[in-house]
């Protein structure tokens, strides 16, 4: 945007006075984005500011669900062997423009190929730009999975895979798979400023990036050429406000319309306030205690189950989560498809737990519980949680020592197969696919990696491997439901909690939907008055 | 005077080298490794770890890294942030004007109130005003910044709605910011009400950040004044029938200023420390919050570069204070 345009917009806004406010949605966000190219980063705060307003993906999650729907791809087809996925691209999709760049063509297959090639191909001139580490592309195993991406014609792209993989569609809806403009990238490379792709982003999304003042404000303008439902407000403003109490004050004072992440302690007074609307939903996460299932006596499922019965989860929800959590009985959150609600939790029963331990010949047991040194949505205070468990376990005659390490150390050491003790940890979902929880956290491949229980159960593993390659969601869901039954029976973890995510807003905000994948999305949000 | 200035400048060099070394080792002395922190629960494969370590350049021996850092610093290159991938230098100068603007306002606030308060208290030694003032100063000095800031926000922004809650200017205003100083840029923008809005946004953060220096300056001024007021030449001046205003204002205050200026100079360090909390609460986009975030993320280049730049700022302020001694007291510059 040229300087004149900026001035004109500013002047227009200031002359419109209050009515300009009505057309601008102000969101009090909790932190600054690391940049605006979502493929380079992993933080939700960055995705809120980049992939959701500015970009689109081939497939997208329907807001409010973990279901994937067509977006820049109008449709897709999976070949019979499951190893080729062909995307038919949408025609007439326009990229945004800015002061340095005006697109001369619509979105097409070249943009799709470029968006992925730069992440996986070291020869691509953009591979090293902005210190690209492409964490998610690597983290979701894309380099192993994608053999090649081929342009069939301008509006058809075929992804050749090394193996059949049903979650690939969900992966295409993830933030790292946002489609950037190849034409813009080429122009910036020629101008010698390739980092502009990250700093002055161009996408196809419902809002076009206008300006970012570091750590203070991000501004977006509605994309009037948007291919889908156009945004309801003319401009979107992120007011970066790191302190949660201050965010609440700003909502009350009318300085912002919506805020993220209220203090759990403030939620009740927000609910009591007639001028504030509070929405809530379970987060796409789980907090757990992973036993080391390779070390006696924790290699015995009955011992693990007995210990699970000794944990008073309700007390943990009340004390550690201050109400902003929900008891977890399954390893996947309730908002995820295939969640097996028929499963019964191991209810808190210290007497039964004690008897069960005795029946297994376990007495005078001493164990360690590892407490994470950091706060996470799935575990806001691991130390406190470990203390509560220590107390619970002492009631059944188990003596607990609490240990902790610096976060990087903690993650590294807890992977060891001969680890001494049970580990408090958790997981936040990436793509809304159960495979992203069950295979990553409990599959045999994850042992000594992300499978902190070191649990490798053949039956369970066979089911999740099979579910991964089935074509329909209904078939897959059935298998995942079965897997959850085995999990509950074998109890490699004590599932503790799913966080509850709150969104606080003013009553004039219309159409906001809490998104189970955790992003804050404003495409469909309007303001009354 | 020139010799004096040069001798002060020479002490700059060893301090600078020391600061470079400390800023480099400080962040590395903390446990934790940026790649592990970045990977989080998701974890990272050994190959990928090695690749990233190579890319960030810390698979090399520590002394090689330090040498690179030092030569970079001498060429004005502080490296790029691991997280945002942007040059540390650019980030610092995008944020520093905000911190500077707030610090200057806080300092003006502290001096403008603290100096007269200290003088009045000294002149009225032991009387009610003196006691009230000094107990208030003690409270101000001990006030936890976080709590104080939230209290002011709740009362003045929440209940009374006199001041905005946070930020630097009403979001309605949007104009280019060539200097980064909101007061100047808002005036230059010519937009009606922009300057007033910027000033209103400064009120609470200024008070919060200025409270501790204000208390320190008031107490220091009082004790320095008391000492001077007991001197023979003051008694002589009084005996000669000089007006109390002239005695206190010129003869006493000028001599009492040396320790006060020392305290003001030292307060710059306090201001930068206070800025970390103040900036977080008031969503003030300055370097305080930037540094804290970077420490948590183990963003080595930002922490070491930022610390170095802040240290240089403090050194410049101290140098200026040393120069001011010379201006106020000719005896010092002749030494």
Low-pLDDT sequence parts of chain A:
1-22
Element pattern of chain B in H and E: HHHHHHHHHHHHHH
Q: Specify the oligomeric state.
A: heterodimer
Shape of chain A: globular
State the secondary-structure class of chain B. Answer: mainly alpha
What is the number of beta strands of chain A? 20
How many helices of chain A? The count is 20
Portion in beta strands of chain A? 15-25%
Radius of gyration of chain B: 24 Å
Number of domains of chain B: 2
Specify the overall morphology of chain B. globular
Residues in helix, % of chain A? 25-40%
How many helical elements of chain B? Answer: 14
Sheet of most strands of chain B: none
InterPro entries (chain A): Peptide/Ni-bd, SBP_5, SBP_5_CS, SBP_5_dom
Domain Solute-binding protein family (chain A): 68-446
Keywords (chain A): Signal
Organism (chain A): Litoreibacter halocynthiae
Describe the structure.
The complex is a heterodimer of chains A (529) and B (335). Chain A has helices at residues 3-16, 18-23, 44-49, 51-54, 109-120, 135-139, 142-145, 168-172, 182-190, 196-199, 244-252, 267-272, 301-310, 313-319, 350-359, 382-394, 407-413, 435-442, 458-469, 473-490, and strands spanning 24-29, 59-61, 68-70, 73-78, 84-89, 146-153, 156-161, 207-213, 217-222, 235-240, 258-260, 277-282, 285-290, 325-327, 366-370, 399-403, 422-428, 493-505, 509-510, 526-527. Chain A is of the alpha+beta class and 529 residues long. Chain A folds into three domains: 21-32 and 205-276 and 506-528, 3-Layer(aba) Sandwich (D-Maltodextrin-Binding Protein, domain 2); 56-194, Dipeptide-binding Protein, domain 1 (Alpha-Beta Complex), CATH 3.90.76; 282-501, Dipeptide-binding Protein, domain 3, CATH 3.10.105. In chain A, the strands form four sheets. In chain A, strands 1, 8, 9, 10, 11, 12, 13, 14, 15, 16, 17 and 18 form a twelve-stranded mixed beta sheet that branches. In chain A, helix 13 runs antiparallel to helix 15, helix 18 (435-442) runs antiparallel to helix 19 (458-469) and helix 19 (458-469) packs antiparallel against helix 20 (473-490). The longest helix of chain A has 18 residues, at 473-490. Chain B is mostly helical. Chain B is globular. The N and C termini of chain B lie close together (10 Å). The interface between A and B is large, with 61 and 57 residues. Chain B: The chain crosses the membrane at residues 9-30, 92-120, 132-156, 198-218, 256-282, 302-328. Chain B: Its main location: membrane. Chain B: This is Dipeptide transport system permease protein. Chain B: Keywords: Cell membrane, Membrane, Transmembrane, Transmembrane helix, Transport.
